[in-house]
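Inverse folding, one chain.
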C-alpha cells in the first residue's frame, strides 16, 4: 500500500543534489506562505511544517518535527485525530481544525 499523508496545510531532502521544479515550488510555498502548513504522517506526527505554523503554536520549527499532533495540540487532539484519519482514508486534506 502506498504511503499517504494528511496535509494540514522544512525538511529538505534531495537526491543527487538535484531539485525538481515541483520540489522548488513546494519549498517556496512552505517558505513564503502566510498561512500555517504541515505534512502529517500516518502516526499523526509532523513531518514538515512551515515557519508560520510554528509561530502560530508559539514554538520553534524544529520542535514540531516528529512530534505527535496530540502532544502539541492536546485540546484539539480528538477532533484532529478524527479529521486526519478521515483524510488518510480518502487521500484528502484537512482544513480549519
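Residues assigned per position:
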Amino acid at each position: 500500500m502506498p504511503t499517504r499523508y494528511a496535509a494540514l496545510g522544512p525538511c529538505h531532502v534531495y537526491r543527487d543534489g538535484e531539485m525538481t521544479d515541483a520540489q522548488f515550488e513546494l519549498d517556496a510555498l512552505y517558505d513564503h506562505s502566510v498561512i500555517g502548513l504541515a505534512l502529517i504522517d500516518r502516526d499523526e506526527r509532523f513531518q514538515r511544517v512551515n515557519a508560520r505554523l510554528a509561530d502560530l503554536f508559539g514554538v520553534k520549527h524544529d520542535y514540531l518535527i516528529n512530534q505527535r499532533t496530540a502532544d502539541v495540540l492536546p485540546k484539539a487532539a480528538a477532533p484532529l485525530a478524527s479529521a486526519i484519519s478521515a483524510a488518510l482514508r480518502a487521500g484528502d486534506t484537512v482544513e480549519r481544525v
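The longest helix spans residues 77-90. Helices lie at 21-32, 51-57, 61-64, 69-72, 77-90.
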